[in-house]
């Protein structure tokens, strides 16, 4: 039997999450060809996102997940569920979590993220600003242009 991967994301009809789900569906083709499965778990709505997402994580655990992919949207509500994932020895992958605390988390080597820590991102941006002041000015001009076009106001 291959891996049982659960992807915890947003609503499948959400403009952003529908694209992420298509990616998960595409990955499922490869995983299924190796005897595994990929299951999408998303909330019915966003009214109670943290607790609902924590329940989705617990559903993945109860269904025998070997890996869970998903963000930690509301840490106060979801961290205990993620601790259960670690305690169960299940691999975790986050596409979005950037907290520096995760770098040294006691996760048994089971937690991975695809986005770097805020500390690294901040350092890179600071270096970019220091070496290319024009970049900062260009970004400011782009924001002003976008505000004018989208919101109808001048900065």
Brief write-up:
With 155 residues, the protein is α/β, with parallel strands linked by helices. The chain has helices at residues 15-33, 49-62, 75-87, 118-131, 133-151, and strands at 4-8, 37-41, 67-69, 91-94, 111-113. The chain contains five helices and five strands, in the order E-H-E-H-E-H-E-E-H-H.
- Helicity range: 40-55%
Protein structure class: alpha/beta
Number of helical segments with 4 or more residues: 5
Low-confidence stretches: none
Overall strand count: 5
- Rg for CA atoms: 19 Å
Strand content: 5-15%
Biggest sheet, in brief?
5 strands, parallel
The N- and C-terminal alpha carbons lie at a distance of 58 Å
Average pLDDT figure: 82
Strands across the major sheet, in which order? 2-1-3-4-5
Listing every helix as H and every strand as E from the N terminus to the C terminus, the arrangement reads EHEHEHEEHH
> Judging from the principal axes of the Cα atoms, what is the shape?
globular
Report on this structure.
By secondary structure, this protein is α/β, with parallel strands linked by helices. The N and C termini lie far apart (58 Å). Helix 2 (49-62) packs parallel to helix 3 and helix 4 (118-131) crosses helix 5 (133-151). The model has no long low-confidence stretch (mean pLDDT 82). Strand 3 (67-69), helix 3 and strand 4 (91-94) form a beta-alpha-beta unit. The radius of gyration is 19 Å and the shape is globular. The chain has helices at residues 15-33, 49-62, 75-87, 118-131, 133-151; strands at 4-8, 37-41, 67-69, 91-94, 111-113. Strands 2-1-3-4-5 form a 5-stranded parallel β-sheet. The chain is built from 5 helices and 5 strands; from the N terminus they run βαβαβαββαα.
